[in-house]
Design brief:
The protein has 768 residues and is an alpha/beta fold. Helices cover 42% and strands 12% of the residues. Helix 7 packs across helix 10 and helix 28 runs antiparallel to helix 29. The model has no long low-confidence stretch (mean pLDDT 92).
Length: 768
């Protein structure tokens, strides 16, 4: 058995490929690490990696030593009978997780003594990387039996010793080989030859509890642990994926982490074609002073500018300037929602060659289908997708990204996929858009990212509550731009331009009368309510377009396009009833806005959809009507602090975006937001994924497919096509499991769904 110890499931039982064996896989992982980070002279990527973790340049040698050793020793725990039977397609059951067993091996007395012979090698750092590289290790679950009824397993000492000596010769050939003599039968009950319980408990209590406390007091040591563990995860995922797909490891990795982007690349590939698109649509294009000045901003800045001021192009000018000062390998534009990330890709990133550009979010594969379907579009026929079987590593070849912030900051809660994107983040220039809309957890992750990792970063939005502005400027060290009011005449003219008047009205009945009357006068009317059920009810009652989050993706995409196109036509009567989704994902220009009372930042975002593209010479004035709904849901009283005073100050008067900004400063939330736990930063020795806690996710809805789409779902899966188009968020009480679908996706009754109104909370016949 020991001559064929496996690391992977075999394609051809009885004749495993070298990369499927434990030694072969270990060699691939080691080689991946060497290509990325060394050997001998450090790579540019390794320097970026060390800088990203805020480690001193002198730490590179220690990082390389521990990373290389971790790659050599990470899978020794696979040399046990349960794992071997499992990957050999036999009915084997693992008694212990293999990476936990790898961690135990490091503290066997003979192994511990042997490791001490390597100068500078810290077994505690090795343990944190090796035992945690699958992000399934905690103080509570470490080296616990996976099944309470299974306690005995067999290890293969010769295979373990072979890997140990391979690793030792690699990191220091002068150290003598280890002669490992350990019992081959381990028993958690201690009735057989070797009891792992005592070893486990000694490690936890005598070694690792003290180490965990030390990590909390020593940021540099903690940074080393994070860098080594993440480096091992990258090398392991690369060594596995490249071997699985039959690619040449050296050339694949070297090509992925080779060339840098220049300022000329951004000008030619993104900025210039976007300008031509704007000029073709509007007939003109001129840079304004605020956009020109963006090139002079520091590498860490906060850009606050009104809606319609050209913030995004200003941000690309900042990116261009950063690359001029110091070339970087990637550019990331990170957005709070899938819709805004998709728009950012369509308008900007997609102008780059398909080999450089990427869109990453939960449904990006579907969004990319037929995105550019018109033959006259120069992007027609381009394929922006990546190799499915390379998973996150498929993006390592791309240079310019539009993505949801979760995709790249998910590593803060130990998301494995996000950690696999970490090499791109570490050598990038990053823009965070619409930061006002980040919920408390996501904003905390942003702050902690800025304070603990080093990349050029620009945060931007139209308006920001005082407390959050203070957090970014004082606590995170960002530089405000513009630094003072009136700094740019063109921007000041836009911010100070009269845009709308606001009227308080009694309630929904009066709002209905206003909406019908305005449409009768040829106006474009946007009505924003705070709940999906009210949105559906009003849309049905008034014959309006209905747009919210609870549609099947394919229907939501169609509804989104319908709304956008309808509002692009002037003097074209249209009434759309929508929810909070309009606050960022709908770039439209209404003549009349009707809104339920919402938090101040939401009110400002909603008003930004009224008279959005106004020009001073047109003297056009939007009309805003606000009323209080019957209940505050989904908001709390805390969310609505200051709203009443805010509305009182603008009721009946002429409103500019500058005035809204001043009132947000005066009445906006000022409470200090509590810093949220970050598993990546704070778990220390241990590593457990908490990826679903990056945002304050509501447990009210779940993604499901309709029961009448079940056959379509299986057909898509059979043909290996995305099933995203079928997914619809539904209230949890309507979702149920299907025996053929396991845990995901769940099913929901199609009798509650309408392509026109989305998923309802009552059967379809009751609304139609």
């Amino acid at each position: 058995m020991e001559d064929k110890i496996l690391a992977k499931s075999v394609r051809n039982p009885g004749k495993p490929e070298h990369a499927e064996t434990l030694m072969g896989h270990t060699q691939m992982v080691v080689r991946s690490f060497q290509i990325l980070f060394g050997p001998g002279t450090s790579t540019q990527f390794s320097k970026d990696w060390i800088r990203f973790f805020r480690l001193e340049k002198s730490a590179l040698k220690a990082f390389y030593l521990h990373g290389l050793a971790a790659c050599g020793l990470h899978d020794t725990g696979k040399a046990n009978n349960g794992f071997q039977e499992m990957v050999s397609r036999k009915k084997g059951i693992q008694v212990i997780r293999h990476e936990h067993l790898s961690g135990l091996f490091l503290y066997l007395p003979a192994v511990g003594s042997w490791l001490k012979q390597f100068p500078g090698l810290d077994a505690r750092i090795l343990f944190a990387a090796v035992a945690g590289h699958h992000l399934r290790t905690s103080f509570e679950n470490f080296a616990q039996p996976l099944d309470a009824d299974l306690k005995i397993f067999r290890v293969y000492p010769n295979a373990i010793m072979e890997i140990l000596n391979f690793t030792g010769k690699m990191i220091d050939p002068s150290v003598a080989e280890i002669e490992l003599e350990i019992p081959d039968v381990w028993d958690f009950d201690g009735s057989m030859t070797f009891d792992p319980v005592r070893l486990r408990d000694d490690i936890k209590k005598k070694e690792l509890m003290k180490f965990t406390r030390e990590l909390k007091k020593n940021p540099s040591l903690n940074g080393m642990v994070m860098a080594v563990r993440a480096g091992l995860i990258l090398a392991d995922s690369a060594g596995s994926a490249v071997a699985r797909e039959g690619k040449n490891l050296d050339s694949w990795l070297k090509d992925a982490f080779g060339a840098k982007l220049s300022c000329e690349d951004i000008q030619l590939k993104v900025i210039a074609p976007r300008i031509e698109q704007i000029r073709a649509k509007k007939g003109y294009f001129d840079w304004n002073g605020f956009q020109d000045a963006a090139e002079n901003l520091p590498r860490r800045s906060l850009l606050l500018a009104p809606c319609g001021s050209g913030k995004t192009l200003a941000a690309w000018r900042w990116v261009k300037a950063q690359l001029n000062r110091k070339p970087a390998a990637r550019v990331l534009f990170l957005y709070p929602t899938r819709a805004t990330a998709t728009e950012g890709f369509r308008d900007y990133v997609s102008w780059a060659p398909e080999s450089d550009a990427a869109l990453i979010h939960g449904t990006s594969d579907y969004e990319l289908e037929n995105m550019f379907s018109q033959p006259e579009d120069v992007r027609f026929g381009r394929d922006y997708t990546t190799e499915d079987r390379m998973f996150a590593l498929g993006y390592w070849y791309r240079k310019i990204f539009s993505a949801t912030v979760d995709q790249f900051l998910g590593f803060m809660q130990q998301s494995y996929r996000s950690i696999c994107l970490l090499p791109l983040l570490s050598e990038s220039v990053v823009v965070f858009d619409e930061v006002h809309s980040f919920d408390r957890s996501l904003f905390s992750a942003l702050k902690r990212f800025l304070n603990n990792f080093d990349v050029p970063a620009l945060c931007m939005t139209a308006s920001l509550p005082p407390a959050r502005r203070k957090d970014l400027l004082q606590d995170c060290g960002l530089t405000l731009f513009p630094s003072e009011s009136g700094q740019f005449d063109d921007l000041e003219g836009l911010a100070g331009m009269p845009r709308y008047t606001l009227h308080r009205i009694e309630g929904q009945e009066e709002a209905e009368s206003i909406a019908v009357s305005a449409c009768g006068m040829g106006k474009r009317v946007l009505w924003v309510v705070n709940t999906v059920s009210r949105c559906q009810m009003l849309a049905k009652k008034l014959g309006a377009v209905c747009y919210h989050s609870r549609f099947k993706l394919e229907d939501r995409k169609q509804m989104h396009d319908t709304v956008i196109q309808a509002f692009q036509k002037e003097r074209n009567p249209i009434l759309a009833v929508t929810t909070q989704v309009c606050e960022m994902s709908l770039d439209l220009d209404a003549d009349v806005l009707i809104s339920e009372v919402a938090p101040i930042t939401s009110m400002i975002q909603r008003m930004g959809r009224c008279n959005r593209h106004a020009r001073l010479e047109e003297k056009r004035m939007g009309q805003v009507y606000v009323y209080t709904p019957e209940d505050e849901a989904p908001y709390t009283m805390g969310d609505l602090v200051g709203v009443r005073a805010f509305l009182q100050e603008i009721e009946g008067g002429v409103i500019s975006q500058r005035k809204l900004e001043a009132l947000l400063e005066k009445h906006g939330p000022s409470d200090v937001e509590v810093e949220k736990y970050s598993a990546f930063l704070e778990s220390g020795t241990w590593a457990m994924s908490r990826e679903y806690s990056l945002r304050e996710e509501s447990h009210f809805t779940v993604n499901a497919i309709l029961d009448n789409d079940l056959s379509t779902y299986f057909d898509l899966r059979t043909h290996k096509k995305p099933i995203d188009r079928l997914l619809v968020p539904v209230p949890r009480r309507f979702a149920y499991n299907h025996p053929k679908l396991q845990r995901f996706p769940m099913l929901a009754p199609s009798t509650y769904y309408s392509p026109e109104f989305g998923f309802l909370e009552y059967p379809l016949e009751e609304i139609l």
